[in-house]
Amino acid sequence: MDLASYGDLAVRLVNTADPGRPEQDALVDAAGLEALLGDRAAWRRLPRTDALPRLRALRERLRRIVEDAASGNAARAVRELNVLLAAAPISPQVTAHDRQPWHLHVSEGAHDVVEAYTAAAVMGLAVQLTELGPDRFGVCAASGCRHVFVDTSTNRSRRYCSERCATRANVAAYRARRRAAG
């Protein structure tokens, strides 16, 4: 697996909650955990002791990292990321599976699902920060949305977490212009 793609795990975890809408937290039960794990079959076999509260705590720390980087406080984001890297059970291992070529995994020595998720998400975020730069971390510009993203576009222009938010913002701006003109 491409290490940078592990950063998507961090974004996926952070976006299971929106600070402005705590009632929409997607990480409150076993179904939410299953959805978060997605297609990671190997992680589904790992123990899940206290997984939900531990993942919610990790989620808050990762959110602060992205928000700090997005607001221009890269030094604070990097300090927190380094703390998480030092504590994460990162155990790199070369592997091949599912007809994929040899690639690197970073969570092979994890004792439970939270350790596996932490190792991969933190390492992925670190790779993205160092390869793309902290200015590529963002918080959605759509009104009412606080989801995060990592801008991997070639022109560094991403402002929204998804096409849905971009479309909503564009439609709202269009309607506002029409009201002002009419």
TrEMBL record:
Pfam families: ABATE (PF07336), zf-CGNR (PF11706). Residues 136-178 form the Zinc finger CGNR domain. This is CGNR zinc finger domain-containing protein.
